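Might I ask for a little of your time on a matter of protein folding? The record follows directly beneath this note:
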Amino acid sequence: MIRLTKQTDYALVLMTLIAASEPSEVQSATELAERARLPLPMAGKILKLLGREGLLVSQRGAAGGYRLAQGASETTVADIIRAMEGPIALTDCSSDSGAVCSLEESCPTCSTLRRVNRAVNDALEAITLAEMAGAKHEAREALSEPIA
């Protein structure tokens, strides 16, 4: 099974919460942790990593916190996953890292797995943070609509 780590899942949640707010609004780690229902140390660790990777900008001080480094429509799910986990690859031979498998020359699945990996990457690159934040609002509105 291909699976994201919990930290990457939480990073997607935190980034979506930030994207759903005003672009210039700075949100504290405490506020984000509460909204995401995450322990503050976990949220803080993830937010710092996302900042080091250039996806968030941090502001120090009493009114400090985090905001997106670029617009939500310019940040993709793939960007967040790469920031948390490194290159997105199903297998060593399907990554762009240059890793070489000892079976690569005779492997019957290598070219197919590369195609699958490209498709996965393309799909993740096609989903923006703005879409993630919009989907959250649409789901909330659908839940609050009266049933006819």
